Amino acid sequence: MSTEFSLQRAQEKMAAAGASDLAIRTMRHYFLEAAAGATGFVPESTIEPLEDVAALKDVATLKDASPHTAAHSEALDQTVILKLNGGLGTSMGMDRAKSLLEVRDGKSFLDIIVQQVRSARERYGARLPLIFMNSFRTRADTLERVPSDIVVDDLPLDFIQGMQPKLAADTLEPVEWPANPELEWYPPGHGDIYTVLQERGIIRQLLEHGYRYMATSNADNLGAYPSAELAAWFAESGAPFAMEVAARTKADNKGGHLARRRSDGRIVLREVAQTPASDMDAFTDETKHRFFNTNNLWFNLGALAQLLEEGDGIAGLPLIVNHKTVDPADPTSTPVVHLETAMGAIIEQFDGAQAILVPRSRFLPVKNTADLFLVRSDAFDFGDDGAARVAMDPLPSIDLDPTYFRNIADFDERVGAIPSVRELESLTVRGDVRIDPGMHLAGHVRLP
User: Fold this and answer.
1) Host domain of residue 437
2) Of 368, 429, 360, which Cα lies nearest the Cα of 395?
3) Of 332, 362, 392, which closes a domain?
4) What's the pLDDT score for residue 60?
């Protein structure tokens, strides 16, 4: 079967589903790369470690903790907050938006995000719009929960991430899966955000309303609260793009790291799926590649608009070829490929792009119930501004038996009010154990 035929089938399938011309052209761009043999790999021989990254504590002269200045207010007033909210929390057995999980005092991630934005608006007198990138599975739940008065002017509260057809691994033809046609589609990574922002005209709309900057982060990262300090730094820097990075530890050895490309000196982002097996030792060496992407990103909207205009709407991100099966729950089902892109990989597209080293407290993702255990515990304090702040350093390590604690329903059944962890170094739980709020957790604890 010819590549041209497979591509035509994919384009027709997207058109029949109502995809925009830009979405189809973007899919075509990456399809042709994959058909030509592109793997998306970034071999170790083509990069060198990023040695020096400026730390916010050293370069910023305007501190969040100090009385705010006109520079704080002006920068935040020209900033838009965009939250990536497409995840269902399937790793925790959920079938709705993960951001609806309760975190503290009956408040969900979404509730706390709204609290953070309201607090920043009040403190700095900033407009500070809040926009969500939802998936078609998270949109209804999100819009039902977010108060409508959070909307600013006529700006959208959300937009929906696009979908592309899964392609058979051997022919690149769109797969058919009559047992569950929904499984014939996949979201093509967070890099799809640029396609949707462009096709919806959202960047242009924001610029017309006087916004100059956009700060994006994951909805499950409550450490990424609206920071006037960072907004003022970014505005003063004049950079077209900046990525918040944190120092890697052994716990971060599977996360995407920054490096410098030998051929042109540009900063690049390398994900684990872009790393050849022979280079995995180097990829996971946190002493070699010392900075990882928090996915807290800052954009100059004018620079982003210009980049997309020059690319005819296509951001031209590095390809990530992910090998899957059409039914993720059935490893014997048809092998497929997902053609994906990473949102942060756009760093290599901008002249003058920067990385800024931020405190680890800016990166507090909840990917599993062990993370949720910590966020619900007294290892974190939540102020009136909704910002999650680390109350102890280092944080204790939590290892919960996946048989009994992986799913949120099982977790909630066995973990009610969480005892203090302020004296805890590590907790390992094996078996069907109930964690009682009266327990004293100190040092290294193993249950039962």
Assistant:
1) 369-447
2) 360
3) 362
4) 60
